[in-house]
């Protein structure tokens, strides 16, 4: 027990960097090629890593892709938190900006990758239980972030359901953007929902 | 030009029945097995039809599954219209029942089948253009039905976007129901959404 976790050797740093490259490449592959086309070999090649090294980090294909979607989701949420001070201060403009930000998380390559994984899990037993666990985890994290950014008081009636509806709406908008660029229609939907959400979160009393 | 389209021979009737059986079986297969597992042979077997007969009706796999999702969607919308008189009369109860009905269309096997087809189309060129056309067609029909059942006046500000948002929400709720039974959470979201939608459709003036 002489190792000290805070001091990393160059080898540990390299291993960590390899792992990160594999995870990022896995999400890119899933988003572009879907589940059928995304094998460990394809990901290893894209990451510039040998197949053996890839399998050292992730023994199975299911390990690799589940870890990838989890890791990249955590990264995106962290990035969103880092840029939180660029959002408008409290009020309708902030709510609009937050809804827009949430929907952007669900209309990019990460959502596309997750969608391929979810759809594959619907018919592949080896994925199913892991993706159900991942879905629960990602869903809770996304909900927590939405509550925080919207400054939503979930003890008020309808607020919790409205935050959930915002995430469900974002998921639906992500699906509508899968095959075609839906951005023009989407911006009208976002504007309308953000207005409604703001009046639920902070109703103007007569 | 001696044939008369209104008089069908027994052979035409049989052919029509075979086609309908193939279309229904195709949607069931897609919903259960996904795109990879759904071949023309698997569908033909489930429909109790020879592979040759299946190919006579649908020369390619893409023909069969695109036609199936289109046909079953039209059937469901027709069924919904048939039962329209069972809905409550105008008011909040009707809006709630209509939102519930729309969401039910997006949380059953038909949505599951469509999701597999959409996801496959994201990476398969042979499907892509057809599914984009189908998505446009189905989207317009669903929107038209929603406007009709909600008695929505789209000339009022925000109404068109709110109807669109309702369909996007339904799609997101369908996705959330893919791997687990999400019905309890969903009913809270539907209740909240229907209340908000009703105030947008028919605001109470002071």
TrEMBL record, chains A, B:
Sorted UniProt keywords: DNA-binding
InterPro entries registered for this protein in UniProt: Homeodomain-like_sf, HTH-type_TetR-like_transc_reg, HTH_TetR
One MF term in the entry's GO annotations: DNA-binding transcription factor activity
Residue ranges constituting the HTH tetR-type domain according to the UniProt record: 16-76
PROSITE patterns: HTH_TETR_2
DNA-binding region per Swiss-Prot/TrEMBL record: 39-58
Name the UniProt record assigns to this protein: TetR family transcriptional regulator
Organism: Kitasatospora aureofaciens (Streptomyces aureofaciens)
């Amino acid at each position: 027990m002489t190792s000290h976790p805070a001091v990393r050797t160059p080898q540990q740093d390299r291993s960590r960097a390899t792992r990160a490259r594999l995870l990022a490449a896995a999400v890119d592959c899933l988003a572009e090629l879907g589940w059928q086309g995304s094998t460990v070999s394809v990901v290893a090649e894209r990451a510039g890593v040998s197949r053996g090294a890839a399998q050292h980090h992730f023994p199975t294909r299911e390990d690799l892709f589940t870890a990838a979607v989890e890791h990249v989701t955590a990264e995106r949420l962290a990035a969103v938190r880092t840029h939180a001070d660029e959002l408008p201060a409290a009020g309708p403009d902030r709510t609009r900006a937050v809804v827009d930000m949430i929907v952007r998380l669900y209309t990019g390559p990460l959502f596309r990758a997750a969608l391929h994984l979810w759809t594959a899990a619907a018919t592949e037993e080896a994925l199913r239980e892991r993706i159900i666990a991942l879905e629960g985890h990602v869903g809770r994290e996304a909900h927590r972030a939405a509550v925080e950014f919207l400054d939503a008081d979930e003890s008020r009636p309808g607020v919790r359901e409205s935050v959930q509806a915002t995430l469900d709406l974002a998921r639906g908008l992500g699906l509508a953007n899968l095959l075609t660029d839906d951005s023009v229609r989407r911006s009208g939907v976002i504007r309308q929902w953000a207005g409604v959400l703001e009046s639920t979160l902070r109703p103007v009393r007569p």
